[in-house]
């Protein structure tokens, strides 16, 4: 496979990932489309890593697709991870699902977090990731300190790690292409 073909394949995988991420927001698509978008990102990383792509790859399109996929796809993937975890709750213990009611606005905060992370990484400013995470942690501190629901901190950490890894993976595809 030539470098140009590899670059085109990566762009196609990112585009398909954006479509899958969009369908992941639907009620019917919450179970099937997040893992598909995850597979598409991993495939794009696998193709981009050894590609040695030349300047012929349209990086503007790749950046746009990666940012869209990071912001749109992170919510369904994080929800998919939470659904997996919530299936394994002990019946007699407080549920992490209940902690979701304490952390209101998580979908919007997560989208902004992923935008800040992918933007920082693509701009070559990894310190921006630390800044975004520090702001998020400080903003959520009162809810995390509350002892009303012991699963709140765990849900915050799992959601944050999932979201950060997703955004970093999406940025990594573009960084491997350039």
TrEMBL record:
Keywords: Membrane, Transmembrane, Transmembrane helix. The chain crosses the membrane at residues 31-49, 61-85, 115-135, 156-177. This is Uncharacterized protein. It comes from Nocardioides szechwanensis.
């Amino acid at each position: 496979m030539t470098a140009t073909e590899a670059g085109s394949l990566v762009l196609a995988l990112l585009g398909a990932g954006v479509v899958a991420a969009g369908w992941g927001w639907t009620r019917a698509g919450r179970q099937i489309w997040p893992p598909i978008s995850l597979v598409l990102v991993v495939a794009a990383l696998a193709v981009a890593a050894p590609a040695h792509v030349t300047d012929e790859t349209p990086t503007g399109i790749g950046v746009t697709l990666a940012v869209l996929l990071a912001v749109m796809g992170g919510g369904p993937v994080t929800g998919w991870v939470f659904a997996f975890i919530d299936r394994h709750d002990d019946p007699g213990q407080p549920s992490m699902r209940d902690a979701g009611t304490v952390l209101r606005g998580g979908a919007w905060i997560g989208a902004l977090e992923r935008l800040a992370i992918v933007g920082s990484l693509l701009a070559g400013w990894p310190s921006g990731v630390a800044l975004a995470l520090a702001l998020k942690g400080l903003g959520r501190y009162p809810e995390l300190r509350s002892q009303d629901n012991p699963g709140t901190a765990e849900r915050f950490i799992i959601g944050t790690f999932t979201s950060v890894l997703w955004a970093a993976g999406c940025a990594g595809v573009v960084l491997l292409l350039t």
